[in-house]
Structures are given as C-alpha cells and as structure tokens.
Amino acid sequence: MPAPIRLRELIRTIRTARTQAEEREMIQKECAAIRSSFREEDNTYRCRNVAKLLYMHMLGYPAHFGQLECLKLIASQKFTDKRIGYLGAMLLLDERQDVHLLMTNCIKNDLNHSTQYVQGLALCTLGCMGSSEMCRDLAGEVEKLLKTSNSYLRKKAALCAVHVIRKVPELMEMFLPATKNLLSEKNHGVLHTSVVLLTEMCERSPDMLLHFRKLVPQLVRILKNLIMSGYSPEHDVSGISDPFLQVRILRLLRILGRSDDDSSEAMNDILAQVATNTETSKNVGNAILYETVLTIMDIKSESGLRVLAINILGRFLLNNDKNIRYVALTSLLKTVQTDHNAVQRHRSTIVDCLKDLDVSIKRRAMELSFALVNGNNIRGMMKELLYFLDSCDPEFKADCASGVFLAAEKYAPSKRWHIDTIMRVLTTAGSYVRDDSVPNLIQLITNSVEMHAYTVQRLYKALLDDISQQPLVQVSSWCIGEYGDLLVSGQCEEEEPIQVTEDEVLDVLEGLLVSNLSTPVTRGYSLTAIMKLSTRFSSVNRIKKVVSIYGSSIDVELQQRAVEYNALFKKYDHMRSALLERMPIMEKTASNGPTEIVQTNGETEPSVPDTKLPPLITQPANQANDLLDLLGGNDVVPVIQTTLPTKPASAGGELLDLLGDLSLSAIPPMTAYNKNGLKIEFTFERANPNPNIAVITIHATNTTEADMTEFVFQAAVPKTFQLQLLSPSSNIVPALNQGSVTQVIRVLNPQKQQLRMRVKLTYTHKGSPVQDLAEVNNFPPQSWQ
Amino acid sequence: MMHFLLLLSRQGKLRLQKWFTPVTEREKKKVIREMTLMVLACPPRSCNFLLWRDLKIVYKRYASLYFCCGLGDQDNELLTLEVLQRYVELLDQYFGNVCELDIIFNFEKAYFILDEFLVGGEILETSKTVVGIAMEEAETLQEVTHTHSHLSVTHLPKYLNMFLLFSQQTMEEYMSKPTY
C-alpha cells in the first residue's frame, strides 16, 4: 500500500479543481483511501490522514468517520499525533456525541504528563469544549494545576477553571483556595487569566463577590502600575502597556464596585486617572476609555466622575471613527435612564447621527433618540424622527413607526398635532406599521371627538392618493364609515373643507373592494364602512346593491358580512340605524370581564375592539328616545343592550361567574309586567363587594299556547342610576310556561334613590310582531336602600 | 466571552472556524452561512460592529480575509478589534508576512497559534513573545520522522527579516517543504 499523499499535496490538488463536481470527486476518492487506511489501523499515517480529513471538513464535507481516529491519536505517545488528535477532537466532536466521553481518560492522563506542552493541549481542549461530565471528572486535576508555579500551565488552568465553572457552577467553591495569591503573580498571562477567573466567580455568586471585594486595593495597584510604568516592549500596544489586562481589571472593578460605596470610593482616583491620562489617538486607548466609562457609570461614583464619563462619550460622538461613535451611542443608551439630563445635552449630536450612512449607527441613534424624547423637545424631535422615517431603510421603518406612535401618545402637545403625526406616519411608512397599531389608532381617533371632521377629511385625501398601504387604508375606510356624513357636509374647521359627494365617497370605498392591492382584511373594513354609510348617506339603494353583490363573494369573511348586512336591510331594517350608530368613546382598558359596571355611554365590552370586525354595539338611540319622551325627557339615560343572542350557553356561564360570590339576601321577588300572557318577574341579589349594586334577574314566561320568538327586553333608568344589561339566555319564550328566558340587569345606585325603570318589550307572537312599553315602579325598598 | 471566531475569504470560503460553545454541525453551517452573507455584504468603510441574534458581531478585513467573531454582551467591542489585530500579528510573526495561502496550507498551525492566544473564548496570553516561544518549543517536540519543519524558514520570527526569503518563494518551493 503506497503511503497516503501528504496534506499539502492534497490541498494543492483540490485547489486545482475547476468545478464543484470535480472537487467532490477528488474528495470522495481521498475519503475512500483514508477510510481504508483507518480500517487497516495504520499507526504511522493516521496523523496525516486525520489532518487531511480536517481540511476536507473545513471545505464542508462530512468527516464523522474520523472521530474515533482522533481519540486514537490523542492516546498515542507521539506529540505530533496528540496535537492533531486534540485539534480533530475540538473540530469534529462536541458534547452531543458519546465518543466525546471517551476522551476523559486520555485527558486525565495528559493533564499529568511530564511535558508541559502535552498538559497544555489537554487543558486547552478541556477548556474549549469539555462537557459537564468531563468537567466534573477532571475538575480536581485542573484545580491542582491552578496551584502550580509553572506560569504556562497556571494560566491555562485558570481559563480551564473558568470553563468548568460555566459548565458546572456548583464546582466554583472548589477553586476558591487556589485563588488566594493569584493576583500577586508578575506574569501577565497568569494575571490576565486570574482576573477572568475572579470575574466569572464574582458574576455568578454574591458570596464570592463579597469575599473578593477585599481585592479592590490590589487591583487598583496593579492597574496603576500598568499606567505609570514605562515602556515594556513585551506588552506594549501603540504606547499603552497591556491594554487587554487593563480592560479586564476595569471590568472586574465594575463588578466589585457595583452597589458598594466603599469599593467605589477606593476606585475613584484610579478611574479618574485612567479617564484623563489615556492616549486617545488610537483605537486601543479608546477601548480602555470605553471600559472606564462603563465602569464609572455602573458603580457608585461621585457626580464629578460621572460628568467626566458623559463628556468622554460626548467626545466619542464627535470622533471620525465610526466604531467609536457607535460605541458612544450604545453606552449613552445604557445611561440615558439614570443620567437623563446629562445625555440630553448631547441631543443634537445624537440626532445628527440619524443621518449617518452606517446602518449600525443609525439604529443606535434611533433607539437613543426615542429615549430622549420628552414633553419639551417633542416637536423638534418628532420632525427629525419623521424625516428619518421617510428616508431610512425598510428594516428600520416598523420600529421607527412604533416608536413615533408611542412618543406621540405620551407627549403630544395637541390633538391636532397628534393626528397630523399619525397621518404623516401612515402616509410615509404605511405598509410597515405594525398590525396592532390599527386598532390603537382607531381608538385614538374616536376619542378625539372635535377632530373627527378634520381627520376624516385628511384620511380621505390620503386614500385618493394611494391605496396600497394597508394600515392606512384600513384606518381611512373605518373613519369614512364612521364620519362620512361629516366629510360630505364639509364641516371641517381645522382646514379648508373639501367638496365631496356621497357618490365619490362610495366610489372610493368600492374601489378598495375591487382593488388587487387590498388584503381580505381591508376589504372587510371597506364593506363594513359602506354599510355604515347607509345610515349616514341618502344613497341607500346603491349601498344595498353593493352589499347584495358581495353576498356571493368567494371570500368567506366578506360573504358572511354581506349576507348579514343584507339581512339587516331586509328583516331588521328597524334596527339598522340603531346598530350602525356612531361609535361611542372607547375605554382603553384591559379586558376586565363582565364584573365591571361600565358607563352606560360606553361599550359594555371592555376589551379592545377586534381588528377585523369592529363590534356593532347596539345603541338603540331611537328607541331610547322613545323611552325618554315617555318618561318626560332629561332624567333618563339611554341604555346599552348587548346583542349576543347566539351564545346562550356562555351567557349562562357569565351569569354563574357574576353570581359566584353573591350572598342571597332576603329581597322578595316582584312581578314587573304581566300582560297578554307574558309575565316578567324580577328577582334580586345584592353584589357583595359593592353594596350599591343591585343584581336583578328577569324571568320571562309565556302562558299562551304559542311561543314568543325574537323576544327582546330593554330597560331604561333615571339619570342618577347606571344600568348594565347582560345577554339573555335566549330569545324564545316557550309557550305554556314550558321554560323561561332569563336575563341579568345590574343597577348601580350610588345615591340610594328610589329605583324606577321603564321597560320595552318586543316579540313575535303567532306571526305578528308585538311591542309594548311599561313602567316598573313597585320595586321593594330593600332593592335600592 | 467570544462565542466563535471565523476566517472567511472574499469569495465566502471558510478558512478557519473556532467554536467556544457547543454547537451542532447543522447549526455551525447555518451560522457560517449567515455570517458570510452579513459580513461580506458590508460596504467598505462601515462600522465594524453588527448585531445578530443576541450576539455582538465584530469583523475586520485583512487583505483578502475577513476575521469575524461573535461576542457576549459584556464584551468590549473596541478591545476585540485589538484582539483580532493581535491574532493577525501572531500569524505574521509565525509565518512572516502572512498571506491567505499560509492559512490555507498550514491551517493546523493557525489553530495551534490561536490555542496559545485564546482559550474558552478568553485571552490566554497578552504577550506576543511568549506565544512565539511556546510555538517554537512545541515545534521541537514534533517528531523528526515526519518533518524538518522546525528548521524551516516559515517559523523564524519576523524580526530576523527572513520573511523576505519567504515572500519570494515560488509555489513549488513552498510545496516542497516537508510536512504531514
């Protein structure tokens, strides 16, 4: 068998391959040769073969069949073998392989080898990729080597110990004795690795931190020597003595000085010295300054030192070197919470960085700019940020848009400004705006009552320009649906009202429905908007036509909506205007469930409205107006009736929740209404947590021989009361007392006035609709006292 | 700590990979691919720091090689630029006027040098001289039956100016040096 080709020869050969296929062929051929050589247990050339395998592995080819061979090499007596073997182990093996564990014994032996370079190999391998089991097994050996006087081994043992602690934190205690005089070493390698080891221990254990605090003076001394000492060729980097060690010491000082006044005070001088004396012309000096600034900001430093640190960062911001500007922005971001005013002083420089060409710098500048926005600088900052939003890369737009919305919400100087800002974002970065912004914006617009006309006008104009940005289109179509009447009547105060006809508006909305650019969600919005306009515009026929067309749409969501709206036109026309009334002010609360009494003017569903289908709250204003008239005008407040008649089961569930901890006090039930076979009884409970709330359950029964279908119960109370009507159990009152419809009314009576109620009942009986109004005055005194 | 160190050529070929955390083969390939795309796409005078997943990426270009490493969030990016510079200087000290070819044909040496400089993602030795001496002495242990490499020109320290000889060598001369 001829000797396997040399590594270099193989590399040269493979590099002559002109195509990927040619390379693959060569590799396969060589792999076959190597495999047969491995099979023959060839000791002489194993090393060469594994080396070649490692090269092929680097090119991306599989090399797992060489794993065991690496172990054999490690076990060999020859140094060359061991070197390649350990290299192979580090490249080909990782924790997940079982083969990995077989190394443990070899490493153990090599840790005790007579040659320090073999010991070094073992320590290095263990320190780079030792698994937790291996670390546990070999920690003792590492600890022993940590105490040796051989600096070559000591430094490697220290980093190996760091790895062991990272893998098996419980073993930390074991290394404590060995750390005793680590810092008295003169050898920089040992010093550096010792500081790393101490840092690791202090970061992981508060006890260790306390224990090692006493090292602060020693660390300060070492650092001082490094700065003051003259030129040392061995450790010099551009005129600075061992910057790596300096930075590591500064980092350890940071950890030791954090939240400890005494230690922080002990470091004050040296930090000031480093901050002022370090040469800043080269990157290495700035690296040390950077670490110094981080340390100053993190410990309990005196204010003079903090100012010094912020000023250093300010100088960094003006540096030509992009890396240094980046680092400055990053550090300022960390300190902006604690030293807000100091950072504000650099605001203009930071805002200038928004215009930098570099992506990393722009991102940092953007984050920092948002952190600096406050009530005073909102107008100026927003101008800059909106300009940035216009011109930045797409990867930033979503974050920037969200940031602008947040900042605008917190610090908007006026509602008009707020709406304008939102408009600007929607028109410039409309497609990058996050999905959850749409409902938030809708809610914001709803609540800015006096701006409705202005908002809808601006949104309408924006729609005319561009219908491709979905969030903008969705918000616009929602607004037009709500406030289309204001748009057409030209009521805008804030700016010149535009002349728009109903047909033009409907043209635009219909255009959205048919456009390719509209997503299904957007189409849903525009269909609903068109429907809402049926109560605000006079061209109802046109709307009816559109709605009926979409009743056979392929899109199931659109179809469902269209069918429901059709039904509204045909069968429920009397309810249509009530259903499609203007949306009330929305509460921005987290979902509190039905146990909250809600303002009768507000939504009874406290959760944020669904993005897809804005809930059609029935505010039966017209019918309530009837009630109002009957009761003599102003002292009755209209009532919200929830329309969730499709889920009787959950209504029952809600009731159970509500009634969970109510105690049944002895309030006698009463008959509220009894006419034409329909009897309505009220039973009372008092809600325990709030004695002002009376919970009334109505029971509707039917003594006639025909069912009463489509049964709807409505109630109104005087103004001093608040009333909440929950979902009925069903809307069919079965004939001949076979069952009842129950519904819960909750009445808040803070002024303890006498309870009065006006009720309205509608149902269908034997095919014909029945409607009746009644007054309920015979409430038992206990129900409202 | 450093999580990984990669050396990538201008064409996107991997020249060295050092992983300081346990990573599966598959994940390694993924990271290498993403780093290659990210780093090679950066315009010439841009910031050397990038953010990727939860790591800070520091990269620096030396001639035809990109040195790219992933750092934890406590690590000093500016200092890491110095670390990369130091590694290049160590390679230069060892190979004399180091070029990409050196690292291709002597990748195992590049790893050995790295192992004398970084262990477990942390700096092991801050002195160039000490690393140089360690490499030389280890070479002497390499069994004579295999190589004469400890006498070869490539290993003499730079300050002896032997690098002039090296850089004028032809490919044949380079290849004729005995090794594995």
UniProtKB/TrEMBL annotation, chain A:
Domain of life the protein comes from: Eukaryota
A single Gene Ontology CC term: AP-1 adaptor complex
One Pfam family of this chain: Alpha_adaptinC2
Membrane topology: Peripheral membrane protein
Coiled-coil segments: none
Keywords: Cytoplasmic vesicle, Golgi apparatus, Membrane, Protein transport, Transport
BP GO annotations: intracellular protein transport; vesicle-mediated transport
Family, per entry: Belongs to the adaptor complexes large subunit family.
Name of the molecule in the record: AP-1 complex subunit gamma
UniProtKB/TrEMBL annotation, chain B:
Compartments in which it is found: Cytoplasmic vesicle membrane; Golgi apparatus; Membrane, Clathrin-coated pit
GO BP term, pick one: intracellular protein transport
Keyword Protein transport set for record: yes
Matching InterPro entries: AP1_sigma (IPR044733), AP_complex_ssu (IPR016635), AP_mu_sigma_su (IPR022775), Clathrin_sm-chain_CS (IPR000804), Longin-like_dom_sf (IPR011012)
Pfam families to which the protein is assigned, alphabetical: Clat_adaptor_s
Transmembrane segments: none
Domain AP complex mu/sigma subunit: 1-136
Topology in the lipid bilayer: Peripheral membrane protein
Keywords: Coated pit, Cytoplasmic vesicle, Golgi apparatus, Membrane, Protein transport, Transport
CDD domains for this protein: AP1_sigma
Gene Ontology CC: one annotated term: clathrin-coated pit
GO MF assignments: clathrin adaptor activity
Family: Belongs to the adaptor complexes small subunit family.
Subunit note: Adaptor protein complex 1 (AP-1) is a heterotetramer composed of two large adaptins (gamma-type subunit AP1G1 and beta-type subunit AP1B1), a medium adaptin (mu-type subunit AP1M1 or AP1M2) and a small adaptin (sigma-type subunit AP1S1 or AP1S2 or AP1S3).
Protein known as: AP complex subunit sigma
